[in-house]
Amino acid sequence: MTGGNMGRLLFVDLGTGLIEERPSDPQDVELYLGGRGLAARLLYDLTPAGLDPFDERMPLIFSAGPLTGTNAPQSNRFVVTTKSPLTGAIGDSHCGGSFATQLKRAGFDAVVIRGRSPRPVFLEITDEGCALRDASHLWGQTTSETQRALPAGFGMAVIGPAGENRVRYAAIVSQRRVAGRCGTGAVMGSKNLKAVIAKGKKSIPIADPEGFKRLQQEITQMLLSHPMTGGVLKDLGTANLVMTTAGRNIIPTRNFRAGQDLNTPRLSGEKMRDELLLRPDGCVSCPIRCGRHLKYDGAEHKGPEFETIGLLGNNLGLFDLKTVAELGERCDDLGLDTISCGNTLGFAAELCERGMADWGLRFGDAEGLGAAIERIAAREGFGDELAEGTRRLAAKFGGQDFAIQVKGLELPAYDPRGCVGQGLEYATSNRGGCHIRGSTMYLEATGPVSIDPHSRRAKPPLVVLQQNTNAAVSSLCMCYFSAYAMIPPAIFRMNPNGFLYRSLMGILDRAGPVLKRVVTGGNPLQIVWFEKFLSTVTGKRFSMGDLNRIGERVFCLERLYNLREGLSGADDALPRRLLQESLAPGTGGVPLDPMLREYYAIRGWDERGVPTEKTVRRLGIRA
Q1: Fewer CB under 10 Å: which end of the chain, C or N?
Q2: Rounded to whole angstroms, how far apart are CA atoms 544 and 541?
Q3: pTM of the model as a whole
Q4: Mind listing the pLDDT tens digit for each residue in 162-195?
């Protein structure tokens, strides 16, 4: 590919202070694009099997995509990749803001950081040179304090006290955006690296500038006119999902014991908009503006995303929006993942409720739960136990059946008992319990279509298709919300009780054989604007089938990494609560086993969940 990529990687050894530029491997770029895919390839190649996440040799990789910095809408994201200290599997986390654009404009597609500095440092990357700077004065500061103290005009990725103290679900913060999942902030802290900042003026090569400009205008207009990306998300942000999930009985409540609460409407996006919203906010080059700036009690605040509302609010029995916003802001400031933190607190509160622990945590106790967040970040008292995450807590105190995690990663705010395809997606996600490896729940419960959420029919091929597409999109470093625009606007206008809508849902519900053909045949579906942008920028023609194969290759490589690190098909599991306890009369748990067998077969894996030699060869993976 000639356009989109800078062709250079930055390698930094914090132990020796050596900083060197290396050319990227053209074949790896061809096979994996960038972002998530290229980082997975680098992580696999640069680490021996069994390396501890906190070993100084473990790489921490910041990567951008081929569209990053071009001002293509929703393209300015970066991926942070390492071995997760929470799961022991591949761990990647994604973030918006301006850091990715500045990294590309400084001349790099990715930066690979290894070693451990003898003292706190931050890494400065510019198009004129790169250097390690002393950060002793920043150590101990929050993420907001750190960003204010760093030089202005840079894109930033920083950690807070939680990362410094190696909390296993510590996050990395970039301006007001967060790379929250998998504990990448803990690995960064283990290296005595407080921040990475980047700034540059280089232009990103575009093979067809005029064609790109026309496409940019066309897609921006499409996003702005679409009922979801230009309507609901702009109006309510991700908090639009509060009432949707409550209506479907799938918003986590008191550690996933129920799917809604009578008080859930107090946390709704509508209430936030009507009573607290100051203005919307968004990432660089994104027209959607799904973020929220709130104003209350005489001050501005960051509005909580849906996941924060679901896990730190509804799941903990806290139903005051201001309280939830403040807890979310505090997690961001300390550098904590709100999903894992809220889930861990919910599990800990249930342990206390059952008499299995004596930490004094109670559902609905905002003061006690807020104090626990401070203890977690500092690893103080029982906070040191909670900083290990739910899987390790359960191993020590019991309660594995209701520890809501997959592969060690705590689940997000969608209960899969009301969207069973999402349950399969959680179980098979390479990074653990994750809602953005494919977002099947959007087609089962939270979007304008509703493929029978309690039926396993057609779900395995749908999950495979979504996972492959998502892997390609995140290797482009595009925002996942761009996928919303793939749903034809007319579907949003259909009467859910009308004949046409019910007929369409019936067809989709029985579409398993067709979906299998789509997945195994290279995906002929034309989701046109991803491949159009990539073709225009790189100068090489891409089809959606090409992107699907790239996504499948990325997903399979991640699986091979996990197998190398000791994971197996036995880890493609869900906690007993989600398998055997019902949310409502007449419903059951997630029928995982039969879906899993079909899923493995579609993927070309054996019955143990291991990719066959034929599959690895077909995908051209160097393993």
Answers
A1: C
A2: 10
A3: 0.94
A4: 999 999 999 999 999 999 999 999 999 999 999 9
